[in-house]
Amino acid sequence: MHMHKFEKIWLIFGVGALLVFLSVLGVSAFYMGNQPPSCLATIDPEKVDETAPFTKPGLNKVEGKDWDYELVFVASAFAYNPGEVQVPKGSKVKVIATTKDVIHGFEVAGTNINMMLEPGFISEIVTTFDKAGEYLVLCNEYCGVGHHMMSSKIEVVE
Ligand code: CUA
């Protein structure tokens, strides 16, 4: 079968691009451990206050895990608990959040943290706060008349 030179070049380019893409995906998934959110962590939204770790909202030191602290947030119309929290700079933190009523957002301005909080589900992200300063946490899902007042503050301290 005769194949034109350009056709061959394109074929090699296409297969090459596919291999590069699959390699990047493979390294990301199996070597770096990146995976999409599972949405498997569920909770009874009416029993949030009695369910660990939401019995202790705020920053909690943990031992023997891949992260140093767990930063627990409970959202409800129209506030976050805690309304303000301090985090030591450079520490690895797992943010764990849920909502007691309707869907809320959890965006930390100036970072790539942006989660949706759905009743019945627990949203989590592991992150490191490398830069000291104040970070505004805000709700970016319209949740009712007090939506625009819903915020919290993470203060990253030295
Ligand atoms: Cu909570 Cu908008």
Automatic annotation (TrEMBL):
Stretches assigned to the Cytochrome oxidase subunit II copper A binding domain: 55-158
GO CC aspect terms: cell envelope; membrane
UniProt xrefs under CDD domains: ba3_CcO_II_C
Compartments reported by the entry: Cell envelope
Entry keyword annotation includes Metal-binding: yes
Substrates-to-products reaction catalysed: 4 Fe(II)-[cytochrome c] + O2 + 8 H(+)(in) = 4 Fe(III)-[cytochrome c] + 2 H2O + 4 H(+)(out)
One MF annotation (Gene Ontology) recorded for this entry: cytochrome-c oxidase activity
Keyword terms: Copper, Metal-binding
Domain of life the protein comes from: Bacteria
Function comment: Subunits I and II form the functional core of the enzyme complex. Electrons originating in cytochrome c are transferred via heme a and Cu(A) to the binuclear center formed by heme a3 and Cu(B).
Name recorded for this polypeptide: Cytochrome aa3 subunit 2
Upper lineage: Bacteria, Bacillati, Bacillota, Bacilli, Bacillales
